[in-house]
Queue: 2 jobs
Job 1
Amino acid sequence: MFAALHGRGNLQSVAFEFSPLVEQTALDTITFDVSGLERLFGLTQDIATAIQRRANETGITVNLALAMNPDAAIYAARGFTGVSILPQGDEAKFLGSLPLALLAPSPELEETLERWGIRRFHELAALPPLGIAERLGPEGLRLRLLACGEVQRKLVVLEEPLGFRAELELEYPVELLEPLAFALARLLNGLTTRLATRGLATDELRLWLKLENGAPHERTLRLPVPALDSRAFLKLLQLDLAAHPPPAPVVDIRLEVNPVKPRAAQSGLFVPGVPEAVKLELTLARIRKLVGAEHVGTPELVDTHRPGAFQMAGFGRAKSQGRPPMRVRLALRVFRPPLPARVEIASGRPGFVAARGVRGRVLELAGPWRISGDWWTEDPWSRDEWDIALSDGALYRMYCEPRGWFVEGSYD
Amino acid sequence: MAAVLLQKRFKSMLGGHLGWQVRPAPETVRTGVTELDAAAGGLPRGCLTEISGPASSGRTSLLLSILAAATEREEACAVIDAEDCFDPLFAAAAGVRCERLLWIRCGHHAEHALEAVDLLIQGGGFGLIAMDLGDTPLETARRISLTSWFRLRRAVENTPTVFVTVARESNAKTCASLMLECTRERVSWSQNSTKLLRGIRVRVARRKPGRAITAFYDASALE
């Protein structure tokens, strides 16, 4: 059984809600296969009611027709207003009153039929097929079959557009995050269900909020691996909105997900376990809320000799820097920022050092180790480094630069 | 005396089997310091290991070796840095594969470090979680209640995670399954034309479990 929608508006979206086999017959006509929907809705009338109701809900006015072949449904939808259900075997009788212009014959054929006084479907259907074939050729015969509602053909199926977007206009501005979470949950559930029915997952969520003052508030969440967990997505959005709250009440929500194929991976028996991706993302979101987003990640060394130069990358997204050889190395515990120090010089060398939390006589020292770099840029640096053993029992690295003396850290 | 009598009666009721009382020894992993592994037998999984010692005693060198060994095993590791003093350059030089390392900088908030550790343990999947309280003021570290340590110990129990803390002194007390105390033995300076710090010799004493065991290792400075 086929259904045809004729009217203005986004007919495709309505059709795709009922069937994956949809044909864009014309700009104002959509035909789709509704076979099998009886098990879901019941009688043919119930299917028609459901389609009509959905079309009304989306705000479009259409003519709907259901028939056993697509062309009969198309001409019924174009010729009759409202809902038409063509009984099986009586298509010719049902379509009989429609004008021949609906069949869009060629001008010559139209003129010939006009001269014969044939103006309606039933008049063309009543003509003998052999005579039509002799006088009007194959086109005439095709028009007669269409007028009888007997043409059986397959639909030229449309590829369903993979746009996963949901929008919700709120009845009143929402100020708090908790009621907003309810609306987000509804949108997320719908989107994840749609993704699941197509065997897809998502690796990016884009949230667009329209605020009461008309300004937009946009947030984008990128997941390390494709996932399909609406509860985890909701929690991530909640944590993100808590960290970056919209500056004004929200009046409109639009949520879009990026459809991707789900990750298929099988862990080996002897492969060390790794944190579950979505769970880890949730944990990291909670920690980011606690300590700040810029303080969580994987350290990446940068290609420079500038002391203390590194950058933070997302955990699991940092580039591999090879497999450095393992050696027991003396570590430096860095003071961030470096501690400004008061240094007493004795015989041209540091003799006493005082800084916040560091104070003592220099017992032993090594240096100066003069280093500089980036002199070819606008931000050059140079300094003299000293390794010192203080009377407080610790080993420190300190340096002298044009701004003064600083304690960089303690060796440990 | 009464306890012994009760145990005897209980043993007789069970037909002499009290094996259910004995907990299996936890799996141990290498620290990356051969001398320490040979003497103390490595770090137990699912347990709290505490490394303590004063400043410049070699605690961080030991932590970097532990991290290097864990990342070498392809495990995901996390460093919760209470005082923001971790240096990635020195970590990479010690053999830590930074791409497998999650670094959480708590900006001088020990309580944030505790919360982050709790969240990470609950999340699961990490081979090693290290909480660095090495530069945290003593009074702040002492303020962490035993209940908090106990909760962390319970959380990490029955997981494959090695939980390591570094501090100036032992804080977890009875909650720690392994206690390692670091002391600096000596400092080596080069005797070339430009004097340089060459490294330190560290003495590690295992205080718990069992009898005290001592190991020595050298931590060399970056060339």
Job 2
Amino acid sequence: MTTVQAPGEAEVTRETVAPRRVLRYRIRRISYKTLMYVLLIGLCSFILLPVGWMLTAALKPDLAPVFTPTPEWFPTEHWQWDNFPEVLTRRLPFLRYTINTMIIVIGNILGVLISCSVVGFAFARLRFRGSKVLFYILIVTMLIPWQALMVPQFLFFVKIGWYGTYLPLIIPSFTGSAFFIFLIRQYMRTIPKDLDDAARVDGLNTWQIFWRIILPLSTPVLTVCAVFTFLASWNNLLGPLIYLDDQKKFTVALGLANLVSIADTPWNLTMAANLVTIIPTVLVYFFVQKKLIGGIASVGLKG
Amino acid sequence: MKWRRVVAATFAVALVTTACTGGDDDTIPSGDGSTAAEQVTLDFWVFEEGGIGSFLKTLEDAFETEYPNVDLNITAYPEGNYGVKLDTAIAAGKAPDLVLVFGPEQMRAGLLLPLDDMIEENGIDLSTYVPALVTPGDEFSCAYEDSLYCLGSYAGSVQMLYNKDLFDAAGIPYPAAWPPMTPDEFVDIACQLTDEAAGVWGGAASDPLAYVPFDMMFSPDGRTTEGYMNGPDFVHQFEVLASGYDQGCLPSSNILDPWEQGRDFFASGQLAMVITDFQDLDKVDNAGINWGSTGVPTPEGVEPYFFVWTDSVGVMADSEHPEEAMDFIAFLTTEGLQIRYEVSGDIPIDLAVADEIDWAGGVPGREDGLEVLSHARPMVFVPNRWDVATPYYDAWGFVLGGEKTAQQALDDAAPAQQENLDSEWETWEEAGG
Amino acid sequence: MARAKRGLMARKEERAAYLFLSPWLFGLLAFWLIPIIASLLLSMTRWEIIRDPEWLGFENYREMLFDDRTFWVSIRVTLKYMVMSVPLYLVAGLLLSLLLNLKIRGINLFRTILFVPSVLSGVAVAVLWVALLNPDVGAVNSLLRDLGISDPPRWLQSPTWAVPSVVLVGFWGIGGGAIIYLSGLQNIGPQLYEAALLDGAGPLQRFRYVTLPMITPTLLFVLLTGLIDAFQVFDTVWVLSQGGQGGLGDSLQFYLINLWNEAFVAGRYGYASALAWVLVLIAAAVILIVFKTSGRWVYYEYDPERNR
């Protein structure tokens, strides 16, 4: 059997190799791994230093200067943890805002997952007349800046009586979102055709192919969709702004924007508020990211 | 300056005027229906830092106590999006009753109700109000073409605070409250008072337009800027202030924003002079600074100008409860003055009241401030003023960065600004009434 | 017989397809059609939102092309940003995803950390970076000065560095794009790598001949959405330019910033709508070109149009 020596390759499993080459191979492998770790740690620092700066600023009392001669990447002097509850409870009713936001967010995630998976599947793996035209229309809808449609759509929703409710913020996600439909289409097209053929031979109809075969293999892309939908609805400001007029229904994004409204940007409180919004999303992501691994690579073809 | 950002946020609502019966301001609390008063809800949209501030809360409570049949519902929106919210709501027919007013566009469009009747019936004496705010002129005024469309509770202004102890230490005589010094003097004194070792800057001003009258950039009718903004007088203003920066006598805006942080740094003794909003003075008093105030530096031969503003509240024309809304405005500009003073220490818009309640309280700086305020004048009207002036800001940026001389920068900027100006006037006229 | 059966099957598939598409088609008709027509009509009016619209025909478009200096500036700025950001994000995202696909210890933690910037709203990110990129007292320049660079760039306040600053801020959030690639990597069967190994392919060759072709569908997605994002960049730049100020010398005058200012600050919503539709046209042209050429380099395991 030919010996395959991949320089610094971590995935190679078995070969028969001479002992001396084993040592060299092991060294290469370790240095390769180290290099990867160095890169990863370097990138993480680039990410985390600004976050550390945020934390430092968030912990400062009101009068402490936020801009210091030497940059403070980590809190050293000031530890005013009180800024966090101050922002969360005393200034604005963030608990209620969070609940409101969660209603919208969960509604959106459901809507997107349900609608975009079916529509994406059609574009991905079905033949039908007008598929090209409809796909171009799909893409074109992504090109229209929301600023242009915002007012006409707003007036439309007012006309059908949805003003002041969460409906305009949730229902449209049940009719699909071009971005995710496109993403799912690309993903589903990388699943081999043989699965379909085998399924048809077994007498499965289109729906069953979708539901039993393609969809389970699509957990990675659906996870991505769910995460991005979560973020988009969580951070959405203009939607709640123009459709809601009852302060009790406001969302976290709206509340935060109110906080920084005026000239006196309270840096410490703003940074505290932003940090707090990171936490739930990061937690969600951390637990959900297992689902990012899936698809053919993990499952393998049957038969 | 707060209001500059506010102007970008736009419109506010119209007025509702229908004075109460016989102008009787002291309402008989109609607890058991002696005057048939149904429960009324007034929607009032504002923007405030951190949600609804304590002034509005106190005001709301006091107003609802006096008018038990009215439920005042205050909603706060982010400042930067206030205009969008209002515009869309108006287009959808969902506008509130009471709004914050900025600029004459809505007055012009007939969206606000004139307050004149209400004022007369309530016997509100405007003659002691800060004149620039109640006579027609520029967009900060509540008056438009002989009618008044909004009123407020306080008068904010731009003035220059100075630290008397630092002046004493350097042997420089205090400037008079009025008339103000010239910009050349300002920079000169600032450089004398700067003490790098002690971490003290002599002065702080964001850019020439913080104190140079806006009129200097425009012709008297507000239609021409080319030739004015790059004329020798205005160019000189650029050069003077830029030299102050170059010599290190003034901190750059990146280090310290005079509008947002001016009072803080002044209160901590790091600034000898600062051109900033004349508000939040408790901070300065409590820090034990021995301070005075004077008008903003003005070139010789030019009538001094400084920005004044108020929390202009108006009533929307489509309001379903114009009477009650008018009551609120009347309340705001009478009892509200007292509340405003108690809660946030601002100067009442009615200077007679300011005297009555002894706003100055014997603090020399405050007395100075009141005197300065009495000289407020309107300035030339320019539609969409701050967008028109964008080339001016670019020019200033280039001068500060040392990339162009003042004359070059302003010569380069003038055509663009003239273009903006022409275009804005065109839009203004096309939208005409 | 087989032909008839195929025809029947094709029709069944088509019917199923339309059923699957129905939510989206319904949404198009219900929530998109009327607003789009309205927006097109509005683009031919003068409308200040608070007053009634006034018909103008093509006047807005004429003004845009011949009288509006800012329009052309905004196209230049947006193009500059596109040319700088799209290739960078495309390549960096891919490389990062390969790194994050490694099965090494702690990779979950790394993935989470790199994802953190994407969690913040565009506004929050921009607020943070305005502070960091403050030319005089910001952390970045303080760091650069500590490293010996005496005259660091003035970032958002410099006409040359303004757009690169925006690219840098976006680069901080590259982790978000990486997870899209990550999902795309999941359908590359390990047997392909094994076969390549057997053929004596090194890691670089395995990347070039296995990973890269298999990930072209995702690449196409990232490229297209990257282009669209570059056309539509708004939230972040709005804050970075301190409320749509346009930057020194119009260096931050992006297309949608100009559009927003026209719509809500100058009160010319009709004109802004016209700007929007011109953008759609330009973007559609670019997208079309990319699509037409995509057939040559994108590889689908299953492409129903080619009846593979």
